[in-house]
Amino acid sequence: MLPFDADALRQHRIWVNRMASGDAEALTELHHAYVSILFGIARRILHDPEDVREVVQDTFVKAWNQAGQYRPERGEVSAWLVFMVRNTAIDRLRQRTRRAHAVAGLADDLAGEQDLQPAPHEDAERRDLLAHTLTELSTEQRRALELAFFNGCSQHEIAQAMSAPVGNVKNYLRRGLLKLRQLASRHD
Description:
Layout: H1 6-20, H2 24-46, H3 49-66, H4 77-111, H5 120-135, H6 139-150, H7 155-162, H8 166-186
Helix pairs in contact: 1-2, 2-3, 2-4, 3-4, 6-7, 6-8, 7-8
């Protein structure tokens, strides 16, 4: 249970209403009231201090941007913020997992079909090969692949980031991966 009495909960609703009107001081007040609670929730999910800080910051940005959508009849501000930080932390965890799988898959593609574990110097060589290979892609292909694999972005998000149609993004990704495979097979 959160340590807030009825008067405090009422004050939190007032702050959210003021935030919806553009009052930045209300956001500061809400931040002071909830930052440690939200940090604790994010820390239980993520463990990485940098991810925790970013998730809490993202949560307050979302609260600022969505203050006009808050409805007191659906729950207290505390529940609204806890729900936001929890979902943001879980999204970050999923993004990190997708990125790790994508990087591992890309490294496997570049390494070929070897069953042997590489020696440490081979790992460095593969990283150098990957970095060099990425420079041989077009700017659009490289950017699309970086957004997809290293940032965990969907094709729609990549299209928005690149100001390009989704069809073009699909082409950049497909052709970029094909070119990476071709380049990797030359180095085997």
